[in-house]
Amino acid sequence: MAAKRFNSKIDPWAKIVLVIVIVGEALAFGIAAFEAGDPLVTTGILLLGLLVTALIMWLILGTYYIVDRGTLRIVTGPFRWQVPIGQISSVEATRSPLSSPALSLDRLLIRYRKNRRIMISPADKAGFLKAIGHELVD
After folding, report:
1. Could you report the per-residue pLDDT of 19-68, keeping only the tens digit for each?
2. What is the Cα–Cα distance from 51 to 135, expressed in whole angstroms?
3. What is 30-43 written as a DSSP string?
4. Is domain 1-138 classified as CATH 3.40.50.300?
5. Which of 40, 50, 123, 133 has the maximal Cβ count within 10 Å?
6. Cα–Cα distance, 131 to 133 (Å, whole number)
């Protein structure tokens, strides 16, 4: 079976918040750089601002899930998780706002191993559930 990639669903309000964060961050770093006075400090501040923006964009554009050879790989920017599909005990719908590799509150809570859990938000929930061979638990 070929690997299947599922992109994270992104809530409209999350897009707005992310744009506000990026613009606010750019303004803050820009003002700090302008007020620094020293060209070396200004350059350092601007570079730091670019790195922070790049990390935020990496997290946004790089959040997805891959089902391949009995493993669910979860990727969000530089962070990675692997969940053996055979060790998934249940999948349930949730709207928990707790931190997770998901860009939407329309999430799936995956319980695996003994007490492990992770929340994700595949845009194609039905296709994702089919790919991992599980149904939602009520």
Report:
1. 899 899 889 988 998 898 888 998 999 999 899 999 989 988 999 999 99
2. 40
3. HHHHHHH-SHHHHH
4. no
5. 123
6. 6
